[in-house]
């Protein structure tokens, strides 16, 4: 039985001429299905994913230097055990960049990240292992120290393995904290901003699923029962709802008429609102919009400036916090060792600025050409040994 035959069967004779007030059936939209502060669902927003990726990926690519200070000079320690973990990997599952990327992303999404310090029987550090923050429950002990209970998932039949790590056993990275103990994510601080962006995306998805057609009203002469209303709604949805049915021909009889009852996305300024949400969320993460793909106001010049702005104001505060926590957790106060993320590598994508700064450094006597070559990853220039006169020859 076709859709029209079904309608004719229960609507009765369409020739009735006595006036009956119309019964309207509105095609409803959908609401916001998720809590935007949930980090996994928030990453469904492309701008959140892009911001987290650019921050975590860039920091993961920064070279790491371990050095000591002696008589005011900084001396690199390429054979330090931490440099070996950087080169060979902090654990059997991750390289160093993967560990930093996971930890930074966890800080941006959850407000906290936990890295376990693995030690041998002598107490020496032999590995670092990232622990997902959803596995962790933090507690403040009566001694004033922090403890982290880790519930590590096992096989389904075995449940979760619980173990306790003390502050000395972990590297605890955190975003800005309200109590000094546990960080609070930017997602939770900007809940309403993310809620609006999530609602806009949900509306856009539902609009496309309805075949990119605005919702409206079916007007039917006469009074309908609840069963007839449900049948009409479901029959109309199955025939004309969804993107697969976009553009299908609408044929109505029996006095049924269709009237559009919803403003279009253009009238609702949906596209402009979504662009503004991109800018808002970029502000939340402190990332210039061109770096998360918003080039609506971008030019070549201000995109270059945005990259510098990103290094100075977005990355530097985060990098300095990570350096301080790594130094505290791995070396302790009073240690002669320090760790540093070399941010000068960020200039490698701007050769004009990089070589201009090299030239100034050489002319001012700050660096020599061989030091410049070392910065660029080249070997020192080979200097031929001075030719000594052989016996019997007269020196020039």
Automatic annotation (TrEMBL):
Organism: Sphingobium baderi
InterPro entries to which the protein is assigned, alphabetical: Phage/GTA_portal (IPR006944), Portal_HK97 (IPR006427)
Pfam families listed in its UniProt record: Phage_portal
The name this protein goes by in its record: Phage portal protein
Highest rank taxon of the organism: Bacteria
């Amino acid at each position: 039985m076709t859709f029209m035959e079904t309608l004719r069967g229960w609507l009765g004779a369409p020739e009735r001429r006595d006036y009956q007030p119309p019964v309207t059936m509105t095609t409803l939209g959908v609401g916001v299905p998720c809590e935007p502060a949930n980090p996994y669902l928030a990453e469904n927003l492309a701008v959140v994913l892009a911001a987290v990726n650019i921050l975590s990926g860039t920091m993961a690519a920064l070279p790491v230097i371990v050095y000591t200070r002696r008589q005011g000079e900084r001396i690199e320690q390429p054979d330090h055990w931490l440099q070996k973990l950087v080169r060979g990997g902090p654990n059997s599952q991750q390289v160093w960049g993967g560990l930093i990327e996971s930890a930074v992303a966890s800080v941006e999404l959850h407000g906290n990240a936990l890295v376990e310090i693995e030690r041998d029987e002598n107490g020496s550090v032999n590995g670092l292992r990232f622990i997902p923050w959803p596995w962790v429950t933090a507690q403040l002990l009566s001694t004033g120290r922090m403890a982290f209970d880790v519930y590590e998932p096992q096989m389904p039949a075995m449940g979760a393995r619980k173990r306790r790590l003390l502050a000395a056993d972990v590297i605890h990275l955190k975003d800005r904290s309200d109590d000094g103990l546990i960080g609070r994510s930017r997602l939770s601080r900007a809940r309403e901003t993310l809620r609006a962006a999530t609602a806009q995306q949900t509306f856009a998805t539902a609009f496309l699923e309805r075949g990119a057609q605005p919702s409206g009203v079916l007007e039917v002469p006469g009074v309908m029962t609840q069963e007839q209303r449900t049948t009409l709604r479901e029959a109309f949805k199955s025939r004309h709802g969804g993107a697969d049915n976009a553009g299908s021909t609408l044929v109505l009889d029996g006095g049924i008429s269709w009237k559009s009852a919803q403003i279009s996305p253009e009238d609702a300024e949906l596209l402009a609102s979504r662009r503004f949400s991109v800018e808002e969320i970029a502000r939340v993460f402190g990332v210039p919009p061109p770096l998360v793909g918003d080039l609506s106001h971008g030019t070549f010049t201000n995109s270059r400036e945005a990259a510098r702005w990103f290094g100075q104001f977005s990355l530097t505060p985060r990098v300095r916090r990570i350096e301080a926590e790594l130094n505290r957790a791995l070396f302790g106060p009073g240690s002669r060792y320090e760790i540093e993320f070399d941010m000068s590598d960020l200039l490698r994508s701007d050769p004009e600025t990089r070589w201009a700064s090299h030239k100034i450094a050489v002319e001012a006597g700050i660096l020599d050409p061989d030091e410049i070559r070392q910065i660029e990853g080249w070997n020192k220039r080979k200097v031929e040994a001075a030719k000594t006169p052989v016996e019997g020859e007269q020196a020039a």
